[in-house]
Specification:
The complex is a heterodimer of chains A (412) and B (79). With 412 residues, chain A is α/β, with parallel strands linked by helices. Chain A folds into two domains: 243 residues, Thiolase/Chalcone synthase (Peroxisomal Thiolase, Chain A, domain 1, 3-Layer(aba) Sandwich); 151 residues, Thiolase/Chalcone synthase (Peroxisomal Thiolase, Chain A, domain 1, 3-Layer(aba) Sandwich), CATH 3.40.47.10. Chain A is built from 15 helices and 14 strands. In chain A, strand 13 and strand 14 form a beta hairpin. The longest helix of chain A is centred in the first third of the chain and has 16 residues. With 79 residues, chain B is mainly α. Chain B has one domain: Orthogonal Bundle (Non-ribosomal Peptide Synthetase Peptidyl Carrier Protein, Chain A), CATH 1.10.1200. Classes of the chains: A alpha/beta (412), B mainly alpha (79). Chains A and B meet through helix 3 of A and helix 2 of B.
Chain lengths: 412, 79
Amino acid sequence: MTKQRVVVTGLGTINPLGNNVIDTWNNLTSGVSGIDHITLFDASDLPVTFAGEVKNFDANEYMGKQNARKLDRSGHLSIFAAEEAIQDAGFDLSKPLGEDFGIVFGTGIGGIGATEDAVRVYDERGSTRISPLAITQLMPNSSTGQVAIKYGIQGPSLTITTACAASANAIGEAKRMIEQNIVDKVLVGGTESGTTSMTIGAFAQIKALSKQNDEPQKACKPFDKNRDGFVMAEGSTVLILESESSAKDRDAKIYGYISGYGSSTDAYHITAPSEGGVGALRAMEQAISNADISKEKIDYINAHGTSTPANDLNETLAIKSLMNDYAYEVNISSTKSMTGHLLGGGGAFEAMASLLSMKNSLIPPTINLNDSDEDCDLNYTANHSIEKNIDHSMSNSFGFGGHNAVLIFSKQ
Amino acid sequence: MEVNEVFEKVKTLFEEELGIDSEKINMDAKLEEDLEIDSLGIVEVVMAFEDEFEIEIDDEELTDVGTVGQAVNLLHSKL
């Protein structure tokens, strides 16, 4: 059988910038920050009191309390984002998607909120009071299973937990499933809801988070000289991946092609990127080779750009090693400057941003980039979106553990 | 406590703790089919009963409990 090309036919999202694709895109290209003071719990004892929370979402209202109780918040967000993506791709929500559909979901820490709650109950009231729903809420594959149940997905399934690269890896692995004719449609996405007290406290302990509590909207400043860490965020984004032939047979809308995927491991340090970003560089080279294009054909790079001192420097070095002189020309931006860090949900969100950039010929900016860092001296599309035709875009995602996943999207 | 008082407490508990639609809750309602309480839900229900009524319920006692009425009668017999 011939190798299938893979297209994206549906998008859905819920994240700090919006509870659907259109609002998200409008905010993203207007340079709006989704970061604010934490409202979901009392964060006053924490060293970090702000995050990118999903707003105006009540799971009880959305799915009914009896259903909502069975899921961690990361699961609520997955079900919500999947609904929009399935409808957007033109499938009937009232019918099961069936055996022709696979599902691949990525998450960094799964139902961490449910884990925290269960431990509190255990400490306070003993093992016999732990909720019987705790395990199915907290397991990392909870969203994969719950989304499959809700929408009747009966093909192959995988859950990928490569930290902040998880949902980029999910897209890449789903691409391979379709190319190999294992299945012709895959619901793929990422989810995270680690905006919880223990999790924010723990990330703060490893000095990963920005502590600019006074001005949350300005705290995430990728590639800026004064960047001091990432900003925790929550959300879910879902894409419908499909073989080109399946999409064309049913006259589906096509956002673009997933033309390249690269994946590598630093094997260096559990949190720090390898020096010079050499691990990330290998994943980028693989993705470009997989897409079978030359490096200079890439018009836009959606950077991992976390706003940590180490990531942004090493990612910059890796892009320079990859592209040489062209590195100074290509438009790069970090949409995390507006969303915060969606962890395992980041890759899917940024794939969506890369696809929409290509479709709309508009590159979202890196906001809060005001003081240039002499070591981060590329074109980061500072503070204002720009119009530009994009034939190919690249999205970088790197995770604790040394996992690197890179995707290339193409218009044709 | 009278049977109807136990029922009212059970109804409130199902509604407030488990999010079950109050209109569905009557003595004849089947826990699994009518109220959509699955095997995991039953464990929650038992825990909620134990907390509310300050009793202990053994698994064996649940063998014949399939409806709200049967649950109410079991609770009533233990109070």
